[in-house]
Specification:
Low-confidence stretches: 1-17
Oligomer: single chain
Largest sheet: 7 strands, antiparallel
Radius of gyration: 23 Å
Structural class: alpha+beta
Number of strands: 19
Distance between the termini: 40 Å
Length: 614
């Protein structure tokens, strides 16, 4: 009898979830949830929630904190966000991506014998976007003052115990850091000693950054004292950053080190509040940012996969992996050729790319074996147009920068792999009043050029432009243009209500992991924590958005848990496999339990990401 009861109990457990053990427990909350890339960053969000802030306030506090912690980004980077507004029942997109500076032209870099803008240094920098993004989000959708949400970050700038990951990254890149005087001053407190970077746990002080943040808060206070509204006071601080003395020092310090910024570049730049793009997958509306990000790749891939019965294939079976791998490659091939800043001509053919009929046509290309030569399709007929770039598609294959495509990835320390999935951070927040925020900020990672005496580390996003229209006529460098970036927060609604908010770090693997997280929940019934830790796959057939922009067609990363019979099947299909113990991201997500009116939070076991809920 006891055995029968036990079997029934286990059966019930498996009906409730996918039935896989997780290394982290799921988060449960009734009032709010805050998740980001570092434990101290999540604590900053929790502090704001405890003071009565909403999810936007908490997200801004977390963003400020992780920028101050150099969580693979800094204050001079870029911020991309999706916000669900419970008052309007709409998803809003925040575009706080910086632009290329005056003088940054194709000819400028080609005269320096560069195939792409550089990976590091002052010439890699777009204009700072994160401060403007944070202040716009807070002013338009938050409830608190800038002083309140910056308080945790300002305390950290005065000194916080630096974690080993960041401290060791500084030490490993110190030779490059020494090339830039303001970076050397901040990052290397033990100059001349054997270890010149901070030690793990050492109190890391950033006085210049503190003074910059204090200037913003002081400006807000002055505006409030003059009778300005909360919103007007925040925008007064915004103007000081982009048009006042802070901007002057950013420009002076950047140009001193060889950068191209002008005061006009910063003054004319604006955060954009946009409509996101979306698609419907089996009754679920999935939202992504526009084509200046890689976000529509997820929407395209879902449209392609809608033509297959994924559930019947079985989670991570050989057929499932082969189908998902090829579907991703088809969408990424379109990304590599058609995506770019929609404010510039030519305009990306997004209507055709997101057409269900176009996806059905692309789905027919998926076969028993992967095609390493697959390229972009022609979406123009699906928006009643004629493709003006067919002649470039013919030439494109000769222009691609393939890097030893016949060789598989050589393990976790392979330089190609580390660059391809180089990380940033992600932020997820939700509250009982219905506000939901998904953010993927980035830029200004170590080693970063610090702009004069501001403490602001500059972005390195210029490297995502191309200098040859044969590669992508929509993403060719021009002054004032936003590069096509990998950063890609996600949100999904079901029956008009939030269903899932999710984001991940990881360069060109971001929408690969986000796709599989979504399918893990929707197709295979995993809980959100199970889905964040699940054994994902990664393709490298698309062009890397970084460095030399290499590609490795047919290479695939599999989790070490993938069984031998699946490996043998994939080997017969021609895949070049490598294996990692953790392949999940790191993913962060919130799933909305409307049956019980609560939140489920997931934060993968891949990195240092952490969440707090109440």
């Amino acid at each position: 009898m006891k055995r029968v009861i036990l079997i029934m109990f286990l059966g019930l457990m498996l009906n409730e979830s996918f039935g896989q053990n997780t290394q982290k427990p799921p988060l449960h909350g009734k009032h709010w949830m805050a998740i980001t890339g570092k434990p101290l960053g999540a604590t900053a969000g929790a502090m704001i929630f405890a003071q009565g802030g909403n999810a936007v306030d908490a997200s801004c506090a977390m963003l400020a904190a992780v920028c101050t912690m150099w969580d693979v980004l800094s204050w001079g980077g870029e911020t991309q966000a999706l916000i669900y507004n419970p008052n309007t029942k709409q998803v809003i997109a925040i575009n706080a991506m910086g632009i290329s500076p005056t003088g940054a032209t194709v000819d400028f870099f080609k005269e320096k014998n560069m195939q792409y803008p550089p990976e590091f240094g002052p010439l890699a920098a777009t204009t700072p976007g994160t401060p403007g993004g944070l202040m716009t989000m807070l002013a338009e959708f938050g409830t608190m003052s800038l002083e309140q949400v910056l308080a945790p970050a300002m305390e950290m700038a005065k000194g916080y115990p630096i974690e080993a990951q960041t401290a060791n990254m500084i030490e490993s890149r110190k030779d490059l850091i020494k090339e830039w005087p303001y970076s050397k001053k901040v990052f290397l407190p033990h100059l001349g000693q054997e270890r010149e970077a901070p030690h793990a746990g050492e109190i890391f002080v950033q006085e210049d950054l503190y003074q910059t943040l204090k200037k913003l808060v002081d400006t807000e206070k002055e505006a409030l004292a003059q009778g300005k509204t909360r919103k007007e006071a925040i925008y007064a601080a915004y103007d000081r950053f982009y048009k006042g003395d802070i901007a002057e020092e950013i420009v002076r310090g950047t140009r001193e080190q060889g950068g191209l910024f002008t005061l006009e570049d910063l003054a004319k730049w604006k955060v954009k509040i946009e409509e996101p793009l979306s698609t419907n997958y089996k009754g679920i509306e999935v939202y992504k940012l526009q084509e200046w990000t890689q976000g529509p790749v997820l929407l395209q891939t879902l449209n392609i996969l809608e033509n297959f019965d994924l559930k019947s294939m079985g989670y991570n079976s050989a057929n499932y992996i082969n189908t998902v791998y090829q579907a991703m490659n088809l969408a990424f091939a379109d990304r590599d050729f058609y995506y770019g800043d929609p404010d510039f001509n030519p305009k990306s053919p997004m209507k055709g790319l997101l057409s269900k009929a176009y996806a059905k046509q692309r789905a027919k290309l998926i076969g028993e074996k992967n095609d390493p030569e697959i390229g972009p399709g022609d979406p123009y007929p699906f928006q009643n147009g004629k493709n003006p770039y067919l002649h470039l598609l013919v030439k494109r294959k000769n222009a691609l920068a393939y890097y030893q495509p016949e060789l598989p990835i050589q393990g976790p320390e392979d330089p190609f792999l580390k660059q391809f999935q180089s990380g940033t951070t992600s932020i997820q927040a939700a509250d009982k009043d219905g506000w939901v925020v998904s953010v993927t900020p980035s830029g200004g990672w170590i080693p970063a050029v610090i702009a004069g005496n501001t403490g602001i580390g500059l972005s390195q996003r210029m490297q995502s432009f191309v200098l040859d229209e044969t590669l992508n006529p929509f993403n060719v460098l021009e002054p004032g243009k936003r590069p096509r970036v990998t950063l890609t927060p996600s949100m999904a609604l079901k029956d008009g209500k939030p269903f899932l908010s999710f984001a991940v770090q990881g360069g060109d693997t971001q929408d690969q992991d986000l796709l599989q997280l979504f399918l893990n929940i929707v197709e295979f019934g995993m809980t959100v924590q199970e889905a964040t830790e699940a054994a994902n796959i990664h393709s490298y057939q698309m062009q890397s958005s970084f460095g030399a922009h290499e590609s490795k067609p047919g290479s695939i990363t599999l989790n070490t848990s993938v069984p031998s019979w699946v490996r043998k099947d994939l080997e017969k299909r021609g895949y070049k496999m490598n294996f990692l113990e953790r392949t999940s991201g790191p993913l962060n997500a919130i799933w909305f339990d409307w049956k019980h009116n609560s939140f489920w939070g997931g934060s993968s076991n891949h990195g240092e990401d952490y969440g707090i809920a109440w």
